[in-house]
Amino acid sequence: MVVRLGSLKINNMATTLSSKIVKIRKEHQCYSCYRKFPIGTQMNYWAGLYEGTFNACYSCLTCVQVMNMDTETEFPEGYVNEMLSKGESPEQLLERLK
Ligand SMILES: [Zn+2]
After folding, report:
1. Is the model's pLDDT at 68 over the cut of 80?
2. How many Å apart are CA 48 and CA 44, to the nearest integer?
3. What's the mean pLDDT when you consider all of the chain?
4. Which of 26, 36, 78, 80 is most buried, most CB within 10 Å of its CB?
5. How far apart are the C-alpha atoms of 77 and 86, rounded to whole Å?
6. What's the pLDDT tens digit per position in 14-55?
7. Cα 27 to middle of ligand 1, angstroms
8. Would strands 42-50 and 14-23 be described as parallel, antiparallel, or unpaired?
9. Are 36 and 26 in contact (CB under 8 A)?
């Protein structure tokens, strides 16, 4: 079963407590593509329990869209980064998947 809450979907090992789009107030690294984003960027903040442990992470909106295109897959850390072809950006990946 896939849990879909807010704009970020997490696999069934996770319980979502909070998932929302926020404007970041300090630099954050995207959980999925590992890019760093500057203050003021809109990112998806997710907080919840993963295998019983509290976790919180930020994902860029491009990665959220990539993850939302797949209804079954689990999304471990670095998920989008690993899907990229050499030299491809997450935005190009998103276009390729559309
Ligand atoms: Zn990202």
Report:
1. yes
2. 13
3. 85
4. 80
5. 19
6. 788 888 999 999 999 999 999 999 999 999 999 988 777 888
7. 13
8. antiparallel
9. no
**From CA 43, how far away is CA 37, in angstroms rounded?**
9
Alpha carbon separation from 64 to 41, 52, 91 (Å, rounded): 14, 23, 11
| Distance from residue 40's CA to the centre of ligand 1 (Å) | 15
1 versus 98: which is more confidently predicted?
A: 98
Tokens representing 22 are 């926020």
- Which amino acid type is present at position 72? E
Nearest Cα residue to 10 out of 88, 89, 92, 70: 70
Q: How far apart are CA 3 and CA 29, in angstroms?
A: 23
Contact yes or no for 11/43 (Cβ under 8 A): no
Q: Is the pTM of this model over 0.85?
A: no
User: Quick one: average pLDDT of 81-97?
Assistant: 95
Ligand 1 centre to CA of 95 (Å) is 14
Q: What's the 50 CA to ligand 1 centre distance in angstroms?
A: 20
